[in-house]
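FORM 12-B: Structure-to-Sequence Request
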């Protein structure tokens, strides 16, 4: 019995020792597990922080890259829009220029035909005075000037007729014969008429220039007429100058 009690006592001690060792081992395991959990949590936090940092950097880089791309696209679009606006302006200017040239062509036709320019002048902004004066009045024509030249020339001859005195009286027979002869024979020193009818010579030059279609040269010849003859041609010359001015205004409009 004594022996059995001792064995039980030893067994209890062993159980207590094992229990104590188990408790110690469990405590060690708990500590080790806690340390591993702590290390794992720390590693996870570090990984998460690194991931967040990398993600932020990537997002920032992507955002910066996207911003640069957007800026580039905006600049490209701005340039293209600017180019389109310039093209639109050029197209509008071309349309306006085309319409103006068409109007100028109608003006040229109306001027050549001696028709009032009113309808053809409407598309022209700030039409030149040389054209606007014929808005409702028929302009002179070159053909009309050629037809009316001889009548004006006759008036110029009459105004410069040496057989007629300034007071309307007639000279004597001998004087009249000499004056008539001076109308038939002309003596010049260069361009200066020394003796003869200066009016007839200049009228002939004006006539030839007109026949050749040179109104400027014709007017230049008329400007050399004696005062009385030149005054007699003023009406015809004014018409010729008006036509030349209208033609010059058309050329200026056509030149832009």
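FORM 12-B RESPONSE
SEQUENCE OUT:
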């Amino acid at each position: 019995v004594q022996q059995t009690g001792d064995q039980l006592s030893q067994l209890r001690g062993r159980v207590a020792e094992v229990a104590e060792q188990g408790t110690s081992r469990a405590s060690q395991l708990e500590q080790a597990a806690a340390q591993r959990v702590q290390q794992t949590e720390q590693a996870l936090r570090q990984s998460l922080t690194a991931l967040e940092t990398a993600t932020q950097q990537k997002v920032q880089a992507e955002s910066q890259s996207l911003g640069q791309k957007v800026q580039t696209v905006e600049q490209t679009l701005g340039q293209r829009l600017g180019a389109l606006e310039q093209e639109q302006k050029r197209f509008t200017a071309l349309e306006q220029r085309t319409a103006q040239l068409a109007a100028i062509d109608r003006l040229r036709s109306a001027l050549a035909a001696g028709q009032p320019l009113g309808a053809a002048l409407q598309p022209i902004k700030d039409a030149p005075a040389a054209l606007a004066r014929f808005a409702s009045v028929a302009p002179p024509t070159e053909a009309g000037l050629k037809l009316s030249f001889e009548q004006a020339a006759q008036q110029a001859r009459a105004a410069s007729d040496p057989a007629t005195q300034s007071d309307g009286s007639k000279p004597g027979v001998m004087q009249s014969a000499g004056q008539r002869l001076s109308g038939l024979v002309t003596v010049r020193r260069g361009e200066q008429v020394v003796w003869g009818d200066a009016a007839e010579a200049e009228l002939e030059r004006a006539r030839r220039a007109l026949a050749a279609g040179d109104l400027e040269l014709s007017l230049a010849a008329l400007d050399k007429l004696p005062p009385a003859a030149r005054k007699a041609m003023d009406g015809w010359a004014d018409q010729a100058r008006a036509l030349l001015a209208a033609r010059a205004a058309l050329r200026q409009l056509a030149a832009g």
